[in-house]
Amino acid sequence: MNKEFHIEVDCQQRSHYEEKICGDVFLSKRIREEGRIIAVLSDGMGHGVKANILATLSATMALNFTREHKEVEKIASIIMNTLPICSERKISYATFTIIDIEIDRRVTILEFDNPPCIVIRGTEIYEPSWEKVELTEGRHAGRQLVTCSFTAGKEDRIISCTDGVLQSGLGSESYPSGWGRENLISYSRMIISSEPTISAGKLAAKIVTMAHKNDGYRSRDDTSCAGIYFREPRKLLLCTGPPYEKDNDRLLASKVMDFPGKVIISGGTTADIIARETGKEITDNMVFEDPELPPESFIKGIDLVTEGILSLQKVAEILGNYKKYKPGKGPADKIVRLFMESDEIMFIIGTRINIAHQDPSLPVGLEIRRNVVKKLASLLEENWLKEVYLEFI
């Protein structure tokens, strides 16, 4: 957890107003063992299911081939010669942008027919040196793609979007030729100037919302915006379960109180240990904000104190069905909210067995603490590219 800064990746989308399925596809992958992040945004021709399938095919190939460290020319050739061609318009059925971020902050971007990425350094536009890549074989021989490489710094941002953003408002009185790249740049810089620490996801959401507004709130094309933000990491510690050896109670308390970020204590026994070792009081809350869970408690200096295994189990359920999740106010919802607001998440898991969790009358699906935490870690790493660390004590 000693990286210079965190790389936040997010994407916001809105479908064509007549469709429920977006024809744009965004995929991202953190390759932890290499310290790499790969993000791909693909735009399928047209909209709806067919466009989504073609964009998914394009994005999946792009992600997999990039992961294998293939040269940009090879990646482009394979994808282009795999995708079908429209028989009438004689063009590829999908476009794409690939952003490959190495451990040394070296960024390589490869684009085919998507709007050019925008790189913002602080609040100023940074123009990397773009080069053309010409395909030399296959049915797309002679077609050109563009690529660039640069080393990212703290507070750099990369904005990638599909045509639905730049062409929003096309034919309107305000934007007869569409919103366009310059207006997108001006709008993005204005937002960043007014909110310097705005997240990648919130900036992307504002851009998509503005494009939707330009279209009179009836998007005429699938509209996607992906944002990448290089910034100071936000750290979170979740501590659950008592240490295996009681002699380690004081060590656990010191780890909690010395942590340079927000802290969640999950579990009544764990909270008792922290309160006892630090001389702080636990204040109970009698307001049940979630009928399925005991209410949270309060310890001065701790951001959130909840019940243990039941709360974490519900957090795992929420994260596993996040697309259908409607935010609430209960303890599990608050844990999820803190997860989403954080970049580096440290779990300290006590390994003393709680006899209550062996009660056969408890729900069959209830897992022991360490397995629930491992499930949470997997979901956070795979679905949200969080940096997750586990420590057992």
Brief summary of the model shown:
The chain is α+β, with helices and mostly antiparallel strands and 393 residues long.
Would you mind describing this structure in some detail?
This protein is α+β, with helices and mostly antiparallel strands and 393 residues long. It has 2 domains: 6-231, PPM-type phosphatase domain (Phosphatase 2c, domain 1), CATH 3.60.40; 235-392, Rossmann fold (3-Layer(aba) Sandwich), CATH 3.40.50. Helix content is 31%, strand content 27%. The chain contains 10 helices and 18 strands. Strands 2-3-4-5-9-8 form a 6-stranded antiparallel sheet. Strand 6 (118-121) and strand 7 form a beta hairpin. The two termini are 18 Å apart. The model is unreliable at 362-367 (pLDDT under 50).
Radius of gyration, Cα only, in angstroms?
24 Å
Question: What's the β-strand tally?
Answer: 18
Structural shape: elongated
With helices defined by DSSP (H or I, 4 residues minimum), what is the helix count? 10
Taking the sheet with the most strands, its summary is: 6 strands, antiparallel
Q: From the 3D coordinates, which CATH architecture of the largest domain would you assign? A: 4-Layer Sandwich
Structural category:
alpha+beta
CATH topology of the largest domain: Phosphatase 2c, domain 1
Strand content: 25-35%
| Tally of structural domains | 2
